Amino acid sequence: MSTSLLWQRWLALAALAVTLPLGFSGAVNWLFLLPLAGVGLALLFSRTVYPPLPAWVENLLAPLILLAALAAGGLRFGILRPVANLLVLLTAVRLWGGAPRPRRYTVLALLAVLNAAGVASSTHPALVLYLVVGLAALTFATAQLLPLELGQRLGGAAPRGQPPWRLWLATTALALAVGAPLFVLFPRLRSPFAAAGMGARPISGFREAVSLHQLGEIKTSRRPMLRVRFPDQAEVNPQWLRFVGATLSHYRAGRWLEGRRQVQRGDLPILRGDQVGVRAEFSLEQTSDRLFLPPGARRLVPPEVEVWLDGAEAVRIPRGLVPPIAYQVVFDPSGVYTRPPGDEDLAVPISRPALERLAQRVTEGHQGAWAKAKALETYLQANYRYSTRTLAPLRADPVEWFLWTSREGHCEFFASAMVLLLRAQGIPARLQTGFAGGQDLGNGEFLLRDANAHAWVLAFVNNRWHIFDPTPPEGQPAAELGRSAWDWRAIWARLGEIWDRWIITFSLADQLDVLLAVWAKVRRHWLWIAVAGLVALAGVAVAVLSRRWRPRPQARLTLSPLGRSLWQLARLAGWEEGALHHATPTKVLETLLLRLERSRATCQWLFLVHQQVTYGLVQPPGARQLRRALREVRGELVAYRRQGSTPPPGEG
To answer: Is the Cβ–Cβ distance between 4 and 58 less than 8 Å?
Structure first.
């Protein structure tokens, strides 16, 4: 196989590998990946090297590629996605005929950028397998292509065949060993990086301010967030698994904002409230600046720090507390305790007439605020589809876009739409965000993860606040049944937790925590560390010196099959084992020729073939020809040795 054909197939394999993370992470539209995958398959199974497309064809394709990216959304959905779509189509064009030397490096650069975009947008634990396999393939390709490139550039024949498997595995393992510490040490510009804006995909979890213009597709994180235990309850009602993080009333340009009410500090009423109700013990598993409480919380026993109430009626605590953060709550399962409704709970900052028409059509024939609220809740659940993809354009109001254009969205869209529809009917309403559902761990204990983050509606009907959840059932976090510790699903969930915690959401703060913990260990045990370091240095020094003074063993020759046959001929000519170790092939040949008459030419041919085969200049001759030549020389040497007229070579 020629070098160019080998390059073509490796580039095709790389293109096919790049399509996997790009497609599954949503960084690139699947339709844009089809040309790249098609070109990769065509080049992979081709037996000839394809030349590049003519320059006029590539120039003709350039505006078509730009138009395709604009038709797929352009900059309405951020910058990264259209740029990635453009790069994918450009790579497909450049990949065709990308094997020649001036062009292959451009293709490699494009594939590297696309691979980085796909990996940075991926969150599934299977990414580990993808990275390991990709690294192994990269080292194997380098071991194959680099010697060929060096042979062509420096002249002479390059070694053929496959690289040694031990060297290949050792190189892959070394790259992994070096890459893991670099991942830990490389500074994080964002926490987490994958939650960046401008088209990147946000990660599920509680957000202090609800922004419906957050573009991309929400990644589901399984990182543990909250543990709750009901110690006095034999059975737990799933409706109790709803915990509030913020109550929001102000909607402006696609964002729900915290109110401007004065932050209340000091002796809060909830700290000295009624202790009659259901008792729950909470533990925050992540660093947080707020305590998540049931909607009917009456009494709070906070951690031993200052607590206060902010404008979103969230109980706040100082930042930087090391989890787990424990607190207790006594709550009324049927109550919703929040401030009375105000003028802001009836504000409709978007097109009120359109909302009124839709709300009147949905609630037609329903009497009373409760019936109208249930009708709106049922209508949204039945006529709109739940989706984690949020592609609301920047120049349109997200709620209007959700109600009349896309008709799909995540829980924040459903809750926001119902709040504004209720207000259009004159019913005070608010948006609440927090967590719902959870995994049943047994004994009345539940674990809530980032994926349990949720948004719902508070509506003031019949002179009290009620909870409504217009999100379809498939989008509502529910209580998960507990699993055995040895269940493969539980093991996979645990691996997912580790992946989310230490890979996806590993932040700059986590890096600082690791460094501070290491520094604390060093300061505490510096004497033992110094002694261990000195002992290790002394051991290395002793090993080096002992190796230097140790007598070197005699090197053992590694001979080819033809070399071993020539070695045997030299022994027949009288060479001793020790003398052969230091003799040159020319010297051995000279002594053989002194003992030969009829087979001198054959002996010279054997040594010449051995030299050429050893240095890769020619292919070895046929086995039958070699056996005949060796038999001829060996026969004459045996006859000469029987005469015994000359001393052994190398002895004078």
So the answer is: no
pLDDT tens for each residue of 521-567: 899 999 999 999 999 999 988 888 877 666 655 555 556 778 888 88
Question: For tokens 């269940």, what's the residue?
Answer: 487
68: its two tokens: 């395709």
Tokens 């009829």: give the residue. 598
Q: pLDDT tens-digit profile of 297-353?
A: 999 999 988 899 888 889 999 987 888 899 999 999 999 999 999 999 999 988 889
Under a CB-based contact definition with an 8 Å cutoff, are residues 95 and 39 in contact? yes
- The CA R_g of the chain, rounded to the nearest whole Å, is 37
Pairing between β-strand 453-461 and β-strand 429-436 as defined by DSSP bridges: antiparallel
99 φψ region: left (φ > 0), alpha (ψ -120 to 50), beta (else):
alpha
54 CB-side CA count, 13 A: 3
How many CA atoms, within 13 angstroms, populate the side-chain half-sphere of residue 52? 19
Which CA distances in Å does 90 have to 66, 73, 110, 421, 591? 10, 18, 8, 46, 67
What residues form DSSP beta bridges with 464? 461
Output the CA–CA distances (angstroms, integers) from residue 411 to 184, 254, 446, in the order listed.
34, 14, 22
| Sign of the four-CA dihedral 115, 117, 122, 128 | positive
Q: Backbone phi, then psi, for 196, in 5-degree steps?
A: -65, 155
- CA nearest 149: which of 159, 137, 138, 139? 159
* Torsion, Cα of 72, 73, 75, 77 (10° steps): -120
Angle at 32 between CA 31 and CA 37, to 5 degrees: 95
Instruction: Take residue 423 and report the two structure tokens written for it.
Output: 């207000």
Give 393-407 as a 3 state SS string. CCCCCHHHHHHHHHC
